[in-house]
Specification:
Layout (H helix, E strand, L loop, with lengths): L34 E3 L6 E3 L33 H22 L70 H110 L1 H65 L8 H14 L1
Antiparallel strand pairs: 1-2
Main location: cytoplasm
Keywords: Cell projection, Cilium, Cytoplasm, Cytoskeleton, Flagellum, Phosphoprotein
Pfam families: Radial_spoke_3
Length: 370
């Protein structure tokens, strides 16, 4: 595989072909319309006849009357700001005059022209087209990637070593005995404490179970006694109510029996005489007549009227039915008679003795008889 590399030189920045020149348009020094030049004396004066605004007069101070103000112009004292402004204007005027007095590049002579040149310390050759060159390179084909090396961290610090011989530090069998005694003692003590705690918990659970059983039994007995007391109280109230009702009923029955016996005794003696007196006075007859006239007779008239209306209605219905049947039969008989006349007119000769009308009348009479 070949790769070409091309180097290109680029030209430097374009420079102006002519000299640097500067010119400004003429302008008036005073551009105040309120000031006019007096042609007689050549000095700048103000128009005395023209009215001026006092707000633009420098001798009038505007603003707060309590604050300190610079003294008005015309009293012989100039403020620091005015002096600084006057100094700044003078410096600007000097710079402008120096710029105007600086000579520029004269124009070229006839037949010649100005040409820009380089004023740097090192000259640079300029080309319209940069220098180009070709370079080739070839890479190896099927180059395998090398194996990744094993990461080995860098060592920090210096290595040191020491040698300990048997018996130099301590005797393990001798030094380990107190530790083993403490461990075994603490383990045994903890085991005994756990066993005692478990036995105590078992005792507490058994006591709690017995207490719960006793409490449940007492609660059930209390509920049973309360239900029994309530049942006995309700039974007592019911029996008392029944006894009172039976007593009241017995008293009422005795009173009714006594009243009935007393009334029967009085009525047995008074009833014949009372009825005889009423009959003699005519009250009972009028009552019977009034009952017949007011109750029986209207009912009888109403029933008779309904029966007569039903009879009349039935008679009208039967009459209509008979009329419809008679009309239907008459229509049928007329049709039959006409058909027979037509048949006889076709079968009999012209010199028939019996007229057709007589035959039709006889047929109608027979049909009517049927």
């Amino acid at each position: 595989m070949s790769v070409s590399v091309r180097s290109v030189l680029v030209e430097g920045p374009q420079r102006s072909k002519g000299p640097f020149t500067y010119a400004s348009a003429p302008r008036a020094l005073y551009n105040n319309t309120k000031l006019k030049r007096n042609p007689s004396c050549g000095s700048i004066t103000t128009n005395q006849n023209q009215n001026t605004n006092l707000m633009h007069d420098k001798r009038v101070v505007r603003g707060s009357t309590y604050a300190s103000h610079p003294q008005a112009a015309g009293d012989g004292v100039e403020s620091a700001a005015a002096r600084a402004a006057r100094t700044r204007r003078r410096a600007l005027a000097k710079r402008a005059a120096a710029a105007r007095l600086r000579p520029g590049t004269p124009p070229p002579a006839p037949g010649r022209r100005h040409h820009p040149i380089q004023t740097e310390y090192y000259l640079e050759e300029l080309f319209d087209k940069g220098v180009e060159m070709e370079v080739g390179v070839q890479t190896d084909l099927f180059l395998d990637r090398p194996a990744t090396p094993i990461y080995v961290p860098a060592k920090t610090g210096a290595d040191a070593s020491t040698q300990i011989y048997p018996g130099e530090l301590f005797d393990f069998d001798l030094e380990v005995q107190p530790i083993l005694e403490v461990l075994i003692g603490k383990t045994t003590e903890q085991a005994l404490a756990e066993v005692a705690q478990e036995e105590e918990l078992a005792t507490l659970r058994e006591q709690q179970r017995r207490y719960c059983e006793l409490r449940d039994a007492e609660r059930a007995e209390r509920q049973r006694l309360a239900a029994q007391h309530l049942r006995l109280h309700e039974e007592k109230e019911r029996r008392v109510t029944e006894a009172e009702a039976a007593q009241i009923a017995a008293i009422e029955a005795r009173e009714r029996t006594a009243a009935a016996v007393l009334v029967q005794g009085y009525i047995a003696e008074l009833l014949p005489s009372v009825l005889a007196g009423l009959r003699d006075q005519g009250y009972l007859v009028e009552r019977i007549e009034r009952g017949v006239d007011e109750e029986f007779m209207p009912w009888l008239v109403k029933e008779v009227s309904l029966e007569i209306e039903s009879i009349i209605t039935s008679r009208d219905v039967i009459t209509e039915i008979v009329r419809d049947v008679v009309e239907a039969r008459g229509e049928l008989y007329r049709n039959v008679a006409e058909r027979e006349e037509n048949e006889q007119g076709r079968n009999e000769p012209e010199d028939s003795i019996t007229p057709p009308s007589a035959v039709s009348e006889e047929g109608e009479e027979e049909h009517l008889e049927e």
